[in-house]
Amino acid sequence: TFLSQVLADLVRAGVLQAHAGPRGGYRLRRSPEEINLLEVVEAAEGALELTECVLRGGPCSWDDRCAVHEFWSAAQEAFGSQLSATSLADLAKAAPPP
């Protein structure tokens, strides 16, 4: 059930095409070089933006920042940048042969 939900999310996000029927299945809508990991993760999990304060638990505010705010924001930015810079083709190249 979980896999079908993730696949449906990827179809809605325009990453995959779904084809029904006995010879149906899923295929990429674009080439693997054009699809980055950030797209895939955000399609399945939602935006990576942290909206709650790590220490206080409430809404994160730039006006009243906690001690972790700048460091957490930098880490979040680096994570998103790395995902955005990594394509599905990059993953395929890095995968060991079957």
Task: State the strand order across the main sheet.
Answer: 1-2
- Please indicate the percent range of residues in DSSP E strands (runs of 2 or more): 5-15%
Say how many strands there are: 2
**Coarse structural class:** mainly alpha
The biggest beta sheet reads: 2 strands, antiparallel
C-alpha geometry: elongated
What is the average of the pLDDT values? 90
Give the radius of gyration: 18 Å
Low-confidence stretches: none
Q: Give the helix level as a range of percent.
A: 40-55%
For the termini, the CA-CA separation is 26 Å
State the gist of this model:
With 98 residues, the chain is mainly α. 45% of the residues lie in helices and 8% in strands. Helix 2 (37-45) packs across helix 3.
Structure description:
By secondary structure, the protein is mainly α. Helix content is 45%, strand content 8%. Strands 1-2 form a two-stranded antiparallel sheet. The longest helix has 17 residues, at 69-85. The model has no long low-confidence stretch (mean pLDDT 90).
Keywords:
98 residues, mainly alpha, two-stranded antiparallel sheet, 2 strands, elongated
Give the topology.
Layout: H1 2-12, E1 16-19, E2 25-28, H2 37-45, H3 69-85, H4 88-94
Antiparallel strand pairs: 1-2
